[in-house]
Amino acid sequence: MKRMPTARSWMLATVALLCMSARSVADDNFIVVASTTSTQNSGLFDHLLPKFRAASGIEVRVVALGTGAALAYGRRCDADVLIVHAPAAEREFIDRGYGVERVPLMHNDFVIVGPDDDPAGVRDSGSAAQALAAIALQRSPFVSRGDRSGTHVKELELWDTADRRPASDAQSWYREAGAGMGQALNMARAMDAYILVDRGTWLSFGSRGQLELLFEGDPQLLNPYSAIAVDPEHCPGVRHAQARTFIEWLVSDAGQRAIANFRAADQALFVPRHEPR
Amino acid sequence: MDELRQAPWMALEMLVTLEPELLEIIGLSLQVSLAATLLAALIGLPLGAAVAVYQFPGRSLLTALLNAMMGLPPVVVGLAIYLLLSRAGPLGELGLLFTPQAMVIAQCVLITPLIAALTRQTVADLDRTCREQLEVLNTRQATMVWTLLRDGWRSLGTAVLAGFGRAVAEVGAVLIVGGNIKGVTRVMTTTIALETSMGNLALAMALGLVLLAIAVSISLLAGLLQHAADGRNG
Amino acid sequence: MAETRVPGARERRLPLQVNAVEFHRNGRKLLTGLDFRLEPGKISVLLGPNGAGKSLLLRLLMGLIVPDAGWIRWNGVSPTRCRHQLGMVLQKPVMLRRSALANVEFALARAGVAASQRRRIAQAALEQAGLLALGKQPAARLSGGEAQRLAIVRAWAQKPRVLLLDEPCANLDPHSTARVEALIRDIHAGGTRVILSTHDLGQARRLADEVLFLADGQLHEHASAEGFFRNPDSGKARAFLRGDLVI
Question: What is the ipTM of this complex?
Fold first, then answer.
């Protein structure tokens, strides 16, 4: 029976390991925030959360999902706060009683990036909708998120404005990625395609290849972010008090200042809701 | 092409400087996958051996099921466990979602069929050779299960190692049930996925090389242990 | 495998009664018309050419398989119900992947011997077989003759009343054969009944007290060794003793 002692000590060691990791999670002063991949990837949370923790002692655990998944997780009570950027979906979330209220936090904007040789002439377009129309006309490759994210919803809005929803037979040039912003950007780079992307993600995106920022500034490209506390009446187990503390801090001067100070590549990525004093 | 060339140097640099964040991520990966493998072995080894030794109605169906479940897509397992552990789900009260424990559970579910199926095969082959001999030595079936497990320990060790390899390499399950939360549930594979999605391809590749190096080290270690035990056990 | 207390079990007497036993497989009759009685105390040898059905008969006696017709009784009890009193050495014994000692200890554990005693008894058994020096070696590394002796003492360590051996010296060189046969004689002298099968005339002559001659699934002759070798009754037996191929 020589092997038994070895197996037994292994088991004890692993149980001990498990207990150790359990302890780190059992610390109860935390909230779960469901947010979008673009917000996560911009690095905003890495910048904000330590400040909040220092001020309140509350640990914020961010789970980065797509907007659709974030709302679903909120509905299922798996998150305490949602930070998303999809106004219509947010309003529906509140109307259904899943969230308390929309608290506007900040905004940034979307930009259109594409191959530096710009075959569709996007640089010279008068508006974002016109830019997309030009891309459709040229049948230049275009990568869509295709995943009901905030970015995807905005893209569909623009197509509607241009009155040119890409038809289902447009698969030769219109590619629905069904993936996060980063993956979609990788695809766009590989295919030399145009793509709608939020400025924050674009500024922190590492491997641009031949992609360049071609169009920006259209008011329709505005991208507003809100925080929503999951309604404790719908989800009795939610950490509502701490959730409120977090949201209040975000719209406080301290939080808004932190948002304003967040920069990448020498640009501010987000514009806070109101001017911090 | 540049990233491929950069990656090994970045990997080396990371290993040499021993960044605390990297160590934390590696540590969690190993904790989760080792724990999952241990649990899966505790369940899968006897399960596989019992299916090999005992005759019962539906045995071939169960065998086919185990073999098929070796190919469970990790993301499907992750989704299923998420639905179970979600607050809106049956086990929501446990509050296990987005914790390393949930990741251990998901990976355990993922690799138990693998270990059980490989064990079943090994023990069935051994059984063919040994059954009659064990019978004439008056061995009860329950004891046969344990005896064959012991006798087949080398192949079973490989099965367990295969399970560990699958666990430490998967991303779909731990991503969904863990949430890839920084400092809490972020492991090597989810970090690689994240860095890739952010376009930091060289860094992602470097992390991949680190993961590979760890997997190879563990495999070598297992081989050494087997070799050493060979001399003692015979 | 229930233990059955049989009347008279206190004596080391286990007369064997085989009654009209047949064994079929795939529609072929592999054994027919087997009908004999063996009294305890002798070394009985099942002799015959390959394919005669000797192994099958031993398996039936051990209770590993059941006859398709007829019955087998050890002192009135069927083999499956007195398995603990029977020991068998398979034609190709399988060693567990452990040391020689550990193999014997395994057998002792199955026989209900207390853990504290096993090492001592196992060592004694190995000594009997002249294998004590190899005790800690992996059993798989033993030579053919050593492995055979180990298999024999392993089965014998369970203290069966009867030891069945299936071709114990097939593929062994004369030196190993001699050692194995010496071991068998020692075991028999110690009070264990021995029934073995062989196609080797010389071995039968050396070991047998009585001979059961089998060919193509039938028992052709059952006689004392002396009687059989001096003056066999059946034609097939005579042919076999002459060295002809018995088809």
Answer: 0.87
- Name the one residue in this structure whose structure tokens are 């081989």: B223
Q: Check: CB of residue C21 under 8 Å from CB of residue C70.
A: yes
Q: How many interface pairs between A and B have CB atoms less than 8 angstroms apart? A: 95
8 Å CB contact between B201 and B3? yes
**Quick check: A148 and A65 in contact, CB under 8 A?**
no
Between the two ends of chain C, the Cα-to-Cα distance in Å is: 39
Distance between CA atoms of A247 and A229, rounded to whole angstroms?
8
CB A250 within 8 A of CB A227: yes
| Contact across the interface for B133 and C99, Cβ inside 8 Å | no
Q: Which chains touch B (3 or more CB pairs under 8 A)?
A: A, C
Interface of A with B in 173-202 (CB under 8 A): 179-183, 185-186
User: Which residues in chain B have Cβ-Cβ distances shorter than 8 Å to C83?
Assistant: 138
User: Hey, is B215 helix, strand or coil?
Assistant: helix
In whole angstroms, give the CA distance from residue A72 to residue A92.
Answer: 12
Tell me the shortest Cα–Cα distance from A192 to chain B, in angstroms: 15
| Distance from the Cα of residue B140 to its chain's centroid | 31
Name the residue with tokens 């009860």.
B140
Interface residue A237 vs chain B (CB under 8 A): yes
Residue A37 has pLDDT above 70, yes or no: yes
Q: Which residues contact C182 (CB under 8 A, 6 or more apart)?
A: none
Distance of alpha carbon C165 from alpha carbon C148, whole angstroms: 10
Q: Taking a C-beta distance cutoff of 8 angstroms, is the pair B83, B89 a contact?
A: yes
The helix-helix angle for B188-197 and B153-169 (nearest 10°) equals 30
CB within 8 Å of chain B, chain C residues 22-81: 62, 64
Q: How does pLDDT run across B91-117, given as a tens digit for each residue? A: 988 889 999 999 999 999 999 999 999
β-sheet bridge partners, residue A99: A230
Query: What does the pLDDT look like over B112-162, one tens digit per residue?
Result: 999 999 999 999 999 988 999 999 999 998 999 999 988 888 889 889 999
**DSSP designation for C138:** B
Residues A143, A146: Cα–Cα separation, whole Å: 9
| Strand intervals (E) in chain C | 16-25, 28-38, 43-47, 69-74, 86-89, 162-166, 193-198, 210-215, 218-224
Token pair belonging to C70: 């007829």
- Give the span between the Cα atoms of A145 and B193, in whole angstroms: 17
Contact A135, A142 (CB under 8 A): yes
Q: What are phi and psi of A272, to 5 degrees?
A: -65, 160
- State pLDDT tens for residues C157-203: 999 999 999 999 988 999 999 999 999 999 999 989 999 999 999 99
Q: Distance of CA C6 to CAs C13, C188, C193, Å?
A: 11, 23, 18
pLDDT of residue A4: 43
Q: Is B234 on the interface with C (CB under 8 A)?
A: yes
CA atoms within 13 A on the CB side of A190: 10
Residues of B in contact with A78 (CB under 8 A): 86-88, 97-98
Rounded to 5°, angle at Cα C126 from C195 and C9: 45
**Rounded to whole angstroms, how far apart are CA atoms C108 and C244?**
44
